[in-house]
């Protein structure tokens, strides 16, 4: 049964950050199915587009079930609404996004939601986040999903993990949204009452 996905950025025929995608896929298979053997996404992507910017969507369960490529356009995000859920669990990149979609539906006139769990910032509905203070970028220690781009940026020392209480967001100057398809600092909002809205 296919239950999980990896979304991979493809630039001019090369799958980006593949090591972290493979690691997360195999860690998920181990945790959910108890399968220790290692799969390599590269073995399933023979028809990879050779030029341009694409999204590769890998669907898997015990094995890889489907691989598809499509053109990618970044969603416009200029404002966020803080919404809370202390019970949401999205530790694995599941195809079941019902909880995320329910929270996204609470965005009102804003473009996306910034999800608060146990009074701490986590992610938006589509991306990990980092907040800037005095030139340092901090990312929530307990995101909903430990993204592959987040893992790479932490490994490179670009980001620092810390707990970010929702009532301290105004002490930061900017918020960056990023994921496998959205490069770090390509989507940055200044934090003010027009861009980050409280319920």
TrEMBL record:
Stretches assigned to coiled coil: none
InterPro entries referenced in this protein's UniProt entry, alphabetically: Aminotrans_IV (IPR001544), Aminotransferase-like (IPR036038), BCAT-like_C (IPR043132), BCAT-like_N (IPR043131)
Superkingdom of the source species: Bacteria
Pfam family, one: Aminotran_4
An example Gene Ontology molecular-function term: catalytic activity
Gene3D superfamilies in UniProt: 3.30.470.10, D-amino Acid Aminotransferase, subunit A, domain 2 (3.20.10.10)
Protein name per its UniProtKB record: 4-amino-4-deoxychorismate lyase
Species the sequence originates in: Bacteroides cellulosilyticus CL02T12C19
């Amino acid at each position: 049964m296919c239950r999980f996905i990896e979304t991979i950025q493809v630039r001019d025929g090369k799958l980006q950050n593949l090591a972290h995608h493979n690691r997360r896929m195999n860690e998920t298979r181990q945790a959910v199915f108890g399968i220790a053997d290692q799969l390599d996404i590269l073995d399933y992507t023979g028809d990879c587009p050779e030029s341009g910017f694409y999204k590769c969507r890998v669907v898997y369960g015990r094995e890889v079930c489907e691989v598809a490529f499509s053109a990618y356009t970044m969603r416009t995000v200029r404002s966020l609404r803080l919404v809370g859920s202390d019970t949401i669990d999205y530790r694995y990149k599941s195809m079941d996004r019902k909880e995320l979609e329910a929270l996204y539906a609470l965005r009102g006139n804003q473009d996306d939601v910034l999800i608060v769990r146990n009074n701490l910032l986590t992610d938006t509905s589509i991306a990990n986040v980092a907040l800037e203070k005095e030139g340092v970028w901090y990312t929530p220690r307990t995101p909903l999903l430990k993204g592959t781009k987040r893992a790479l940026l932490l490994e490179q020392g670009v980001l620092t993990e810390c707990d970010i209480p929702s009532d301290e967001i105004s002490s930061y100057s900017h918020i960056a949204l990023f994921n496998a398809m959205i490069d770090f600092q390509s989507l940055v909002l200044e934090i003010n009452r027009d861009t980050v809205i409280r319920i």
